[in-house]
Design a protein that fits this description.
CATH class of the largest domain: Alpha Beta
Strand order of the largest sheet: 5-2-1-6-7-8
Number of domains: 2
Distance between the termini: 27 Å
Shape: elongated
Largest sheet: 6 strands, parallel
Number of helices: 16
Structural class: alpha/beta
Helix content: 25-40%
Number of strands: 13
Order of helices and strands: EHEEEHEHEHHEHHEHHEEHHHHEHHEEH
CATH topology of the largest domain: Rossmann fold
Strand content: 5-15%
């Protein structure tokens, strides 16, 4: 059998054979040997499953016979097939099961009894309807970790409410601080709330598995999307309760931190420069050929620069407006000032640093479409993660797993 070629680092695959199936490739990732049963749809739960699959876990995804996970057709599609699906469902096996049918439910229960982790993002209480809640499942599988991802968590007055990532972003506080101050709250161009919840789901699952290695017992991991967002809100509560200030939208600036913004170059591109630290600011002053600014009373310290951030931004922007983006970046590199271009997907695909670190991988979808996907994050030196298969066809592995039971 032909195996995918490895990247120069040997850590992740950079190609796929059309005949490659999940079972054909032995995982050497840090989660090799861990079996995860993924229940649920959309982004938050499945992205957590994607990450654990990247790290070597065996991900068995249960899908409804009525079209499966809506992610199969979400986002940009080609011939009705979503371009997101091959990535968010990579390294997973697809099993079709109708949980309302006794035979299918019994199969899912058997799979759950063999798994280390049950990952789900239904509304709270849904698992109990099928006898897959922790009390029932742990009686026969005491080591199982059940990771719940929901909008508002498994308890509290809003637990039963539906809660997508966008609602979590609003309730968690980040929407209020995103955008320009003279406009309504904005959102980022990606599903930030869902993705943050997925990250905490992985972290919590790994922590529970570590504890299980000592106690022999599993437990429940309760991830609320709004809490995953709120956890990123830094000192905003203390800013209000103690300092009397509510953080507001500030566009590309972070109030009190300057200079640290995106600055327009002469050729119309934006370059982000972060020179707010006391040790870095004098180097920026030299780079923009205004060394006297380093001793200007307005800019002597981090605090004073923060108080005069609009003036300082205007000075930096005036200089970048006379240079091409490439010249700005090269000058910053020469003076050891942190800076970077504002990339689009087109830029990412051609960037030598992304390529050198194996972050641009190619995979073949089950429809036969070749497409790029991002590599595994983070990199492991001894037990590298891998991308072993693209998102599967609906029910591709159902028969094999039924026959195995």
């Amino acid at each position: 059998m032909h195996h995918p070629s490895s990247s120069p680092s040997g850590s992740i695959y950079n190609g796929f054979d059309a005949t490659l199936s999940y079972m054909d490739v032995h995982s050497t990732g840090p989660l090799a040997g861990i079996k995860v049963l993924e229940l649920g749809n959309f982004i938050a739960g499945p992205f957590a499953g994607q990450l654990m699959g990247d790290y070597g876990a065996d991900i068995i995804k249960i899908e409804s016979p009525n079209g499966g996970d809506p992610m199969r057709t979400w986002g940009l599609t080609v011939d009705g097939n979503g371009l997101w699906w091959p990535t968010i469902a990579r390294n997973k096996r697809s099993v079709v099961a109708d949980l309302k049918q006794p035979d299918d439910l019994e199969m899912v229960r058997r799979l759950a009894n063999e798994c280390d982790v049950l990952l789900e993002n239904f509304r709270p209480g849904t698992l109990a309807q099928y006898g897959l809640d922790y009390d029932n499942l742990s009686a026969s599988n005491p080591g199982v970790v059940i990771t719940h991802v929901s909008g508002f968590g498994q308890s509290g007055p809003r637990a039963a409410e539906p809660g997508f990532g966008s609602i979590g972003e609003a309730f968690g506080g980040i929407r209020h601080t995103t955008g320009d101050p003279d406009r309504p709250p904005a959102r980022t161009g990606v599903s930030l709330g869902d993705s943050l919840a997925a990250l905490f789901a992985v972290i919590g699952t790994l922590a529970a598995l570590h504890e299980r290695s000592q106690s022999g017992r599993g437990q429940e991991v309760d991830v609320a999307i709004y809490e995953a967002v709120a956890a990123l809100m830094e000192s905003s509560m203390a800013d209000f309760a103690v300092g009397g200030q509510i953080r507001q939208r500030s566009g590309g600036r972070l109030p009190g931190v300057a200079p640290a913004n995106a600055y327009l170059s002469a050729d119309g591109a934006s370059v982000v420069i972060g020179a707010n630290a006391d040790t870095i600011f004098p180097r920026l002053c030299a780079a923009i050929e205004q060394p006297e600014l380093a001793s200007d009373e307005r800019f002597l310290s981090h605090e004073s620069r923060g108080r005069h951030e609009l003036e300082l931004d205007a000075i930096v922007a005036q200089w970048t407006a006379t240079k091409s983006a490439d010249d700005v970046l090269q000058t910053m590199i020469e003076h050891e000032v942190p800076a970077g271009p504002v990339y689009t997907a087109s830029d990412v695909l051609d960037d030598p640093h992304y390529l050198a670190r194996g972050m641009i991988q190619n995979l073949l979808s089950h429809e036969g479409v070749s497409m790029p996907t991002l590599g595994v994050v983070p990199k492991f030196s001894r037990t590298p993660g891998s991308i072993r298969s693209a998102g599967p066809a609906l029910g591709e592995h159902t028969d094999a797993l039924r026959d195995a039971h």
